[in-house]
Design a protein that fits this description.
Blueprint (H helix, E strand, L loop, with lengths): L15 H12 L5 H19 L9 H15 L5 H20 L10 H8 L8 H12 L4 H12 L3 H5 L6 E2 L4 E4 L2 E7 L4 E7 L8 E4 L2 H9 L21 H14 L9 H12 L4 H8 L4 H8 L4 H8 L1 H4 L1 H4 L5
Antiparallel strand pairs: 1-2, 2-5, 3-4
């Protein structure tokens, strides 16, 4: 980590930053490089600036709560829910590690309350916005447009769609196999970044997604069948498609549509929400999204709006015998 010392067996940390460094070094042997890079980035950019003056003897409930609150207030309108949650996880992990190593006394911090505080509404495209987006991307065949359509109608993640090869397409059963993801990872030793193919987010992310007929026909219309089997479907090359290119293209398209405040991942949220409204079985949807369990799908990606709530409440109207009680 950039803002800390290296850990040796006979070394005792004197501050929060040094404890975090020790935890990070030990953690590096157990986690993926992409996860480690994410942790380093979050620590260096968001945690270190707030905690770099906190010494071991100053660590208590009030100090940790206050610094977490200051991070939240500073970045609540800038960072995503998942990023803020990851920052809280890192702070929690370092504190728990320090207690286990007896660097500090056991203290009580309500991390669940902190996570609850940062939760906010996830952006989902409404029907009008979706129509504008689809009209825009269907007007011309480009790699970016295909990537957007695949994400909007399968819920596939940005890195997953950029890593799809022709060999990942089942032209007989009309399905795609999600087995990898592509990420641009930082190399802190050279201060550069590299495009890297890695395993998906989790073992549950390795999945098969059947394609609806209309989406399969769109895919075929891009000439994918004529591409070499080892090429990536978005660029017909042997190198993966750059996720940032797709992200930037999405932002430009949304701007032309007059839609602001959306990021690429909202396509995944929109897909999940539309599936629920269409009556999808939750277990099936959870597997298509690559989630570890149904409860995560419900809590993270299913968003109930007023129209859905009203429709559900009006089911009571169908029970005339019940409703008749209130009619004089």
């Amino acid at each position: 980590m950039e803002h800390s010392l290296y850990w040796e067996n006979n070394y005792l940390p004197t501050c929060f930053v040094e404890m975090a460094n020790e935890w990070m070094i030990l953690k590096s042997y157990k986690i993926k490089k992409s996860t480690l890079n994410k942790y380093r980035y979050l620590f260096n950019n968001y945690i270190y600036p707030q905690f770099h003056t906190v010494r071991i003897e100053d660590i208590n409930t009030l100090t940790i709560d206050r610094n977490m609150y200051l991070i939240y207030e500073k970045y609540k309108d800038i960072l995503s829910y998942s990023t803020l949650k990851s920052i809280i996880y890192l702070i929690k992990a370092v504190i728990m590690y320090a207690i286990k190593k007896q660097y500090i006394s056991r203290i009580y911090i309500n991390f669940e309350m902190a996570e609850h505080t940062i939760q906010r509404e996830i952006n989902v495209l409404n029907e009008e916005q979706e129509k504008k987006l689809v009209a825009e991307v269907m007007a011309k065949k480009t790699a970016n447009h295909l990537g957007i359509l695949l994400s909007l109608y399968t819920g596939i993640r940005l890195g997953e769609v950029c890593s799809l090869k022709v060999s990942d397409i089942d032209f007989v059963f009309k399905a795609i196999y999600v087995t990898k993801t592509v990420q641009r990872l930082s190399d802190f030793s050279t201060n550069t970044t590299n495009l890297v193919i890695t395993n998906p987010k989790s073992r549950h992310s390795i999945r098969t997604i059947p394609l609806p007929d209309f989406l399969y026909d769109i895919l075929i219309s891009y000439g994918i069948k004529n591409f070499p089997e080892n090429s990536y479907i978005l660029n017909n090359k042997e190198q993966p498609y750059e996720p940032r290119t797709l992200q930037y293209a999405f932002q430009r398209i949304m701007k032309r549509c007059g839609c602001f405040g959306f990021h690429f991942h909202c396509l995944r949220h929109t897909f999940a929400t539309k599936c629920i409204r269409s009556g999808f079985d939750i277990k099936t949807l959870s597997e298509i999204l690559g989630h570890s369990n149904v409860s995560f799908t419900m809590s993270r990606y299913v968003h109930s709006d007023m129209d859905i709530k009203r429709k559900q409440m009006n089911i009571l109207n169908e029970n005339w015998e019940f409703a008749n009680i209130f009619i004089s």
